[in-house]
Structure formats: structure tokens, C-alpha cells
Amino acid sequence: MTSKDAELVQQCKLGDISAFEKLLDEYEGKIYNMAYRMLGDRQDAEDATQETFMKAYTSLDGFRGDSSFSTWLYRIAKNVCLDEIRRRQRKPVYHLDEPVTTPTGQIQRQLPDESPAPDEVVVEHEKRRAIEEALGKLPPHHRTVIVLRDIQGLSYNEIAEILKVKLGTVKSRLYRARSSMSAVLQEMELFRRQGVRQGERREET
Amino acid sequence: MNPRSCDFPGKLLSAYLDDEVSEAERERVERHIAQCTTCRLRLDELRGVSQMLSQIPQETPSSSFRKQLRDSLVDDVSPTRSQSSTKGFLSGLPLGRPALAAVIILLLIVPLAALITGIQMTGRMASDEALLPEAVSPYAEEGEIMTEADEPEEAPDEASEEYIEFAARAEQQTSVAVRATFELEVEDLLAARRDLLQLAAELDLTVHEETLRESVDLQQYLLVLDVPSVSDELRKRIEDLGAFRQYQIQREYHPALPLSIEDVEDVEEVASVSESRLEIIASEPLPPHLDSDSLPGDGFWPMIYSALSSSWHRFGSHVAGAVLWMAAHAVHVLFAVLVVLGAYFVCRMR
Q1: Cβ distance of B15 and A171 shorter than 8 Å
Q2: How many domains does chain B have?
Q3: Which of residues 55 through 114 in chain A touch B, CB cutoff 8 A?
Q4: Is the ipTM of this structure higher than 0.90?
């Protein structure tokens, strides 16, 4: 572990909260970015980031420094995100295009417009949306490994430590994740080219 | 473009992109892609995905969220941390009470700690004993390396190799039927099944049972094979079907060899799987050097009897361990109690 992190952790353990704030400065961006890519939603990413740091802070005494602080933190974040994904699967899913039933009859769901400012380059934006959509379609354990490697840029060794799996497993899982990502993107591209939107496809079947 | 039209392991291609291959593997990949169009395309495809992902901009948390995060830390968390320090919840009380409280806590904690330590100690002993019957126990140590393989500090691949070796040697020595359970994570269930049947035909294996499981986050292939022996080659061939999630070998005289648990978060799952596979497979006569009395024989009642006796043995030894621990530390405990009581009365007299 980097000596700077180790020192800060030591200070935190002695009750110095400003040391933890320094660790926050260092890692909150990374953890938030990871959570956002895992969960695909800003609010959920914020909640997951908060939960991760809360857990880290309260269980800091149990952190013995066997791995680096960042590995440990990523592991907590991964567990928080996977928990959230599991929770979502239990929650009922609302379809945005479904009408809402109210006492006075059915109305269309009103949603805030979250599209970015018009000055953003449209093509870039389209591409990013496609990637985000494709990421969301990957099974969670594939999403985890691909986010840690290709988005967070961690080494295979670090990933193996975070996921507590063997190096060989990281390799094969990452290969599978990239392959399915590629397949999903190709499929989406195909639909776009044919001018078929997924909504229309659902009506046809 | 069909990625399955070449058998070259894709994980090598993917790792090659990241420069996470050995020198020999790099040469192997480069030699292969020089002559295989399919794999050149696969490599390009993988590279495309990887680059695309690495180019999307970082999402940054909003400044309001960053402030909220810091506030919540100060408000919610720091009081609970400082409470556990010395000037915590006892500070407001009269002088005599802390001593009293300490006595009570001590009286509660000591037997509890004794019980826990006793359980841990005997638990360890029991698990060491349970690992293998006496005659094969020289391997027990190697088995332990294996169970610690999920610690990241160990070189995990090596530990697993050792386990295979250990299992293979133990198996050779006793020459009983072996049943191997592989739990694989596969990308394509049907393709994996096809590959498996091919492999079984080629290596002349009996496929005892196969289960395909598809859940939201996982495609699993549970595969139970009767194998003549556990060789490295077999393991490699099966690994080509999919990533190992776990691996278990069972033998006629001992159903619960240590599991290879790759993924700690799946411990519960592993446990449930191993429990469901505790049946004893058809057997050859036991090797003469094994004491047949201490082993479950064929049939239902011997099995029940052995299960009951082992669980009773464990329970009994937990209690015995706790009592022993308490006895061994009785002097210390008594001394500590006296000191605290003394302190208490001194406080009272002031």
C-alpha cells in the first residue's frame, strides 16, 4: 500500500477525522465513477459512494493493511454495488411508458428531462449512451470486472485481490465480459441500422 | 466472424491486449494471430471494446454531494467512533460505578471468551482431524495450504496446483473411485454442454450428472464426473469449457475433502452445494491400511451413525475445550476479579 495512504489510515484510527477527509478527496471520484458505471444512475451512485465510505470509516479498525487501502475500498464498493443490484432485482420494476393509475384515472408518467445541454456533441453523446446501455445489459459480475479494468484502469493483480479470485479467473472473466459487451453493442448497432427501436420490437412480438 | 470457429483461448487474446501475459504466452499469441484471420478479428473486436470503454469520460460527483458526504461523516459517524474511546459513556457516572461495571463486564466476558476460544480451538482440531483419515494424514498439511488459497497474499494459482497434486497423489495411494464435481461459469450453456459431451467421449469419462443453471447474474454449469484420476490435463480441458467457480473431489471413504473456494462471496452457495453432494459413491473394497471401523461403510445406517457420532463428538469437544480453557486460566481470572473488586472497594471508601 502506498505509504501516504497507510499513514492517513493510521491517523484515522487515532481519531483524526481530517485524515479521512484526505482519503475522501483521493478516492471519492474513483468510487463514484465506478458506482455510476455499475449502477447507471446518479442518485444510486451517490448512495453507494456514501455507503462505501461510511462502511470504510466504521470498519477501519478491522482493516489490517494486508492489502492496500484502495483495494480494500474497492472491495467494499463492489459489494455495496452488487447488493444494490440484487436489491433492485427484488424490487418491482416500473416501465416508463406504462400509464400510472391514479384515483382519477390513468395518466402518463411525467419524467424530468435529464438529457444534457444541447451544446454537447450529439455523436459523442449517442456513443456514450450506447455504451452505458450495453454495460447495463451485462451480468453484474461481468460488469464488475470490465468496469474495474477498462474504466478504472486497474491491473489484473489488483482486480484479483478486489474480487478475491485467481488471476486466471480475472483473465477469463474479462474476456467473456468484453466478448459479451461487443455482442451487445453489435446487436444494438444492428437495431439502429434497421431503424428498429426496441419499443417497436416489443409490440411486434 | 464466428468467435467459436477457432479454438484458441480467448482469455489469452484479451490478456495480451492488456500486456498481462507471460513472455511465452505473448509469443504464442503473436505466432497464432499471424496465421489466423479469425483471431485477428477477435483481437480487434476486444481491443475496440476496451478502447471505447476507456475513452468515456469520468463521471464526477457533484459538489453538493461531496459536501453532503463530508457532513454526514462528521454528523453520523464520528460520535460512534469517539464513544468507543476512553472518555465514552462511562464518564458521566459517579466514581464507584465504573469499577462495578468493569466487574460485571469481566464476569460476563471471561466465560464467553473461554467458550469462544474453546470452540475455536476444538473447531480447528476437529477440522484437522476431519480432513482425511489417519493413514492419509501426511497430506493434511497440504490440504491446509489449499483452504487458505482464497487469501490474496498467497499465490493462488500455485496453491490450486498443489491441491490437484495432493488430490491426485492421495487418490493414487488409495486407488478408490473418484468423483469430481466442477462448477463452471460459462458464457454459452448449450455450447458448453456440447463441448463437454465431446470431451467426455474423447477421454472416456462417465458424466454422472450435469446441471445447467442460469440466473440473472450467472450462468453456471454444475458438472459431476466420474474420473479415473485427477490429472492436470483433465483440469485444463475442463477449464477450457468455462471459468472454474469451484472444484471438488469426493471419494468413497471420505465425502468431504476441502473445497476450492475461489470466490469468497459465494461461500454459502459452496456450502450448500457440497452438502447436497455428500452421497457416497459405489465402492471398491477399502484399502487395508485404512481402519474400516472408523469409516462409514455402505448403506444407510452406517452413514447415519457416522454422521451422528461425528456431530456429537464435535459438540462434546467444544464444551470440553471451553472448560479446559477456563481451568487453565482460572488463576488469571481470579486474580483479575480480585484486583477489580479491590479497586471498587477503594473507590467506595473514599
Answers
A1: yes
A2: 3
A3: 57-58, 66-67, 79, 82, 85, 89
A4: no
**B140 and B119 in one domain?**
no
Q: What CATH code is carried by the domain that includes residue B258? A: 3.30.70.260
State whether A178 and B81 contact (CB < 8 Å): no
Residues in chain B: 350
pLDDT value of residue B16: 95
Pairing mode of beta strands B178-185, A105-107: unpaired
Using CB atoms, which residue from A140, A160, A178 is nearest to B46?
A178
Counting Cα atoms < 13 Å in the Cβ hemisphere of B226 gives 12
Q: How confident is the model at residue B343 (pLDDT cuts 50, 70, 90)?
A: confident
Measured from the Cβ of residue A132, the count of other Cβ atoms closer than 10 Å reads: 13
Give which of A9, A141, A145 is closest to A72, Cα–Cα: A9
- Boundaries of domain holding B191: 136-281
Q: Please check whether residue A20 touches B, CB under 8 A.
A: yes
- Higher pLDDT among residues B85 and B241, named by residue: B241
- Please tell me what DSSP assigns to residue A110: P
CA–CA gap between residue A131 and residue A21 (Å, rounded) = 33
Residue A82: closest CA among chain B residues belongs to which residue?
A: B217
B293 and chain A: CB distance < 8 Å anywhere?
no
Which cell numbers in the block locate residue B297?
461403510
- Per-position DSSP letters for A15-50, written without gaps between them: T-HHHHHHHHHHHHHHHHHHHHHHH--HHHHHHHHH
Biggest CA pair distance of chain B = 93
Q: State how far the Cα of B100 lies from the Cα of B106, in Å rounded to an integer.
A: 10
Whether chain A has a CB inside 8 Å of the CB on B214: the answer is: no
- Computed over every residue of chain A, the mean pLDDT equals 81
**Residue A166 with chain B: CB contacts under 8 Å:** 156-157, 160, 262
Q: Are residues B340 and B237 in the same domain?
A: no
Same domain, B212 and B341: no
